[in-house]
Amino acid sequence: MSPRLLFILLLLAAALSLCFGLANGSLPLAPEQVGRALLGQGDATTLEVVRQLRLPRVLAAFACGGLLALAGVLLQALLRNPLADPYILGVSGGAAVGALVAMLLGVGLAATQLSSFGGALLAIVAVFGLGFRRGERNIYRLLLTGVVLSAGCGALVSLLLTLAQYQQVKGMLFWLMGDLSHPEGVTSAWLVLLAVGLCSTLYSGGLDLLAGGLDKAAALGLAVGRWQAALYFAAALLTVAALQLGGSIGFVGLMMPHAIRLLGVSAHRWLVAMSILLGGSFLVLADTLARTLWSPLQLPVGVFTALLGVPVLLWLLGRQA
Amino acid sequence: MMLQAQNLAVSIGGKILCRELSFSVQPGECWGVLGQNGAGKTTLLRTLAGLHPPQAGVVNCEGRPLGDYARCDLARRLGVMLQHEGGEFWGSVLDYVLLGRFPYRRGLFGYGAQDEEIARQALAGVELADLAQRPFNNLSGGECQRVAIAQVLAQQTGCCLLDEPLQHLDLRHQAQAMRLFTRLREQGHALVMVLHDMLWAQRCCDHVLLMFPDGTVHHGAARELLTRDNLEALYQCPLREVEADGERCFVPGV
Q1: Domain count, chain A
Q2: Checking DSSP bridges between strand B56-61 and strand B64-65, what pairing results, if any?
Q3: Which chain B residues are closer than 8 Å to A202 by Cβ?
């Protein structure tokens, strides 16, 4: 499939997923009702449902998926490792510890968000400070520092879960599995997504080079150390923005770039935009299913990203062989 | 001069490989670097490329120290082919060769039609034009090597540093690569290559740099330095001198 065609298909998929997300819920709507409501026509209930309830939610889901997928692309290029995902460097571990401590103290939603943000920032700074050496091309130290810190955070999360009251545990589990029902800062998340996505596309040649080998990248004129630092912070920023929107939602960041590669596109000038589109559409779909399938019960979206994604990825992998 | 080393001292992992090394490579010269495994050939080459910091001394490219160049400016003057290239490259063969045009990219989407034309010509130069659209990571070892040569050709630099450019190549393609390098030399490019084959060094290099096991380094005209005594000391291996078509050459004595 030519990249151009695939890109157009992904644009269509994004539009369809957004419509699907807007039309479905406890009040099912026809596509034309959704379209009219978006233009400001229709009865008050429909307007309220579409524009106040569902639009922010699908926009949050799309941004979150795009952020995670882009973070995955950048980290896989930085760490030169196909298993890299947005959570590998301990950012989500720090955020989780921050959020769970706040929940344990019962300080409310806004303070929980702030605390998880603080935890993530702490993890980012710690991993970079301990793991990054100027002039050292090998990035394993950074990777291992991140993995070690993640393990430590995992232990703290387990400890916090055992210390928590029985009724607090469910909220904590939802946070840990990823949940888009209280999106915060949707606008800033979109700004981060668009800015980093645009920069990554403009500098996609450098991403291709980094993936090919560090000495070679330097020999071909890339300031490798500066690029590594910039990529690390860009990926961390994307991850924090995604965590603020929906907690730690698994699978999207790891697998969306691979799905695009399995469809035959690997040059970063396409990979960046396509991963964002696929990740965004995918998460909107997963989130819509999560909130409608057992309605009024809302399921954690992280469960659906894996349930939907695993068979598709296995099929793609099998097809390739 | 293209490339100049001044009082260079190179070490790796605490082991000193050479000290007080000074030489300069002029346009149209081809230098062969010879020595045993672990003698420091690759590290010397990486130092000349600015990828490994020297313990002392400087390397100049076109009269200015390497450190004075932005990495991108340097990459338009100095091409480097490493021993282990490629890594995880997911794209096509042509994409890989196009990376050689990275120092020249401009505009939003990087490579223009002219860059692609140069990359295709470079691929044709190593007789791999047919493989342009194949995924890079399912090439054979020898094909990878020829694609890497095409990439460094596409970089169009006045000076090329090549680490074992003939590895994995069969005889026919060794000769093909050497013809390409000789043509570059005739066009006024300067070449420095690490070689393991004395015969190719004799045939194609006008200068050699010998890295002896005791840490001494001799350099100079190939005709003067490639003697039986020198090569036996270099490889610690008995050699026989034979004559073929009026040229003397060396073959292993065992």
Answers
A1: 1
A2: antiparallel
A3: 108
Cβ contact, residue pair A266, B90, below 8 Å: yes
Do B79 and A204 make contact, defined as CB atoms within 8 angstroms?
A: no
User: What is the CA A110 to chain-centroid distance, rounded?
Assistant: 21
In this prediction the ipTM stands at 0.88
The domain that holds A206 is classified in CATH as 1.10.3470.10
Rounded to two decimals, the pTM is 0.88
Range of the domain at A288: 3-320
Do residues B190 and B27 make contact, with C-beta atoms less than 8 angstroms apart?
Answer: yes
Q: Cβ separation of B49 and A219 shorter than 8 Å?
A: yes
Reported as a single tens digit per residue, the pLDDT across A4-57 is 999 999 999 999 999 999 999 888 888 888 888 888 888 888 888 888 889 999
Chain B: residue nearest A262 by CA? B90
- Long-range Cβ contacts of A147-155 (<8 Å, 24+ apart): A147/A88, A147/A89, A147/A90, A149/A89, A149/A90, A149/A93, A149/A94, A149/A123, A150/A87, A150/A88, A150/A89, A150/A90, A150/A92, A150/A93, A152/A93, A153/A90, A153/A93, A153/A94, A153/A96, A153/A97, A153/A123, A154/A93
How far apart are alpha carbons B22 and B57 in whole angstroms? 9
| Cα–Cα distances in angstroms (integers) from residue A241 to residues A68, B80, B107, B241, in the given order | 9, 40, 30, 71
In the A/B pair of chains, how many CB contacts fall below 8 A?
82
Reply yes or no on domain B1-77+157-171+185-254 having CATH 3.90.580.10.
Answer: no
Could you tell me which residues of chain A have a Cβ less than 8 Å from any Cβ in chain B?
A: 80, 82, 135, 201-202, 204-206, 208-209, 211-213, 215-216, 218-223, 261, 266-267, 269
Residue B13, chain A, CB below 8 Å: the answer is no
DSSP state of B77: T
Is B109 an interface residue toward A (CB < 8 Å)?
yes
Q: Beta partners for B11?
A: B16
pLDDT tens-digit readout, B88-124:
677 889 989 999 999 998 755 668 889 999 999 999 9
**A215 to B82: CB separation less than 8 angstroms, yes or no:** yes
Q: Which tens digit of pLDDT belongs to each residue from A203-247?
A: 888 898 887 788 889 999 998 889 999 999 999 999 989 988 888
Q: Give Cβ neighbours of residue A196 (< 8 Å, ≥ 6 apart).
A: A70, A74, A234, A237, A238
